[in-house]
Amino acid sequence: MADEQRCAVYLDGRVIGYVKDGAAFAEEVRTNRRTGVVSGEINVAYIKGLNEVHINADRGRVRKPYIVVEKGQSKMTDELKEKLKNKEIDYNYLVRRGIIEYLDAEEEEEIRAAVDTKSINRHTTHLEIDPAAMFGLTFSTSVFPEYNQVGRHPVSANFIKQSQGLYAVNFNNRYDARAYLLYYPQLPIVNSTTYRTLNINRHPSGQNFVIALATYYGYNMKDGFVLNRGAIDRGLGRSLFYRTYSDEERRYPGGQQDHFKIPAATTEGYLGEHAYSKLSEDGIIEQELPVAEGDVLIGKVSPPRFLEEQTSFGIGEERNRDNSVTLRSGEEGIVDSVMLSETTGATKTVKVRVRNIKIPEIGDKFASRHGQKGVAALIVDEKDMPFTKDGIRPDILLDPLAFPSRMTLGQMLETLAGKAGSLGGKFFDGTPFSGEGRARVDEYGKILEGFGFDKFGDEVLYDGRTGKKFEARVFTGIVYFNRLLHMVSTKLQVRSRGPVQILTHQPTEGKPRKGGLRFGEMERDALVGYGASLLIKDRMLDQSDKADVWVCRECGDIGYYDYVKNVAVCPVDPGATLEKVEISYAFKLLLDEIKSLHILPRIKMKSE
Amino acid sequence: MKQEDNVSVAPGEAVGVVAAQSIGEPGTQMVLRTFHTAGITSVVTTKGLPRIIEIVDARKRPKFPIMRIWPEKEIAKRYEKVREIWRKVEEVKTSAVISNFEEDLKAGTMLLHLDREKMGLYELSAKTIISKISKKEGTDASMAGDDIIKVKYKAKSVEATRKAFVEILGMAIVGIKGIIKANVQQADDGSFYITTSGSNMEEVINVEGVDKDMLYSNDIFEVYRVYGIEAARNIIAYELTEVIKDEGFTVSQRHIALVADGMTFTGKIKSIGRHGVAGEKESVFARAAYEETVKHFTNASFFGERDMLKGVAENIIIGKQIGLGTGLVKLEVKKEDLKKIKPKND
Question: Are the C-beta atoms of A398 and A211 separated by less than 8 Å?
Answer without folding.
Answer: yes
